[in-house]
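INFO batch 0412 | record 1 of 1 | parsing
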Amino acid sequence: MNRPLRGLITSNTLIHKRREPYLINGDLIIMPGIKLTIEPGVELHFAPNTGLLVLGNLNATGTPKDPIVMRLANKQFVIEQIANGHNPFQYHFTDEVPFAKHKVKLNI
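INFO prediction complete | emitting tokens
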């Protein structure tokens, strides 16, 4: 089953490679003293405004043939998750938010 991942990781955990990407629909937090291992070839698609906070250990080593991919989830993927009942959360994608018309100038 393709349930989204989110929340505290409180025991050593392994994310296995599979055909479809994993949706991260809330912050993932690796607690102190805990190890998260991500197998080569795993794809993690992060919903908007989510991230990975490592307070423990992260072991994520891809290979040229099987890289580990972490990217922003595309809108269609999230819509499919919602349609399948796996993702009840609402998200706003950057293409739905108008950008400011004013430019910001930094004085460094």
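INFO post-check: Confidence is low (pLDDT under 50) at residues 91-108.
INFO record closed
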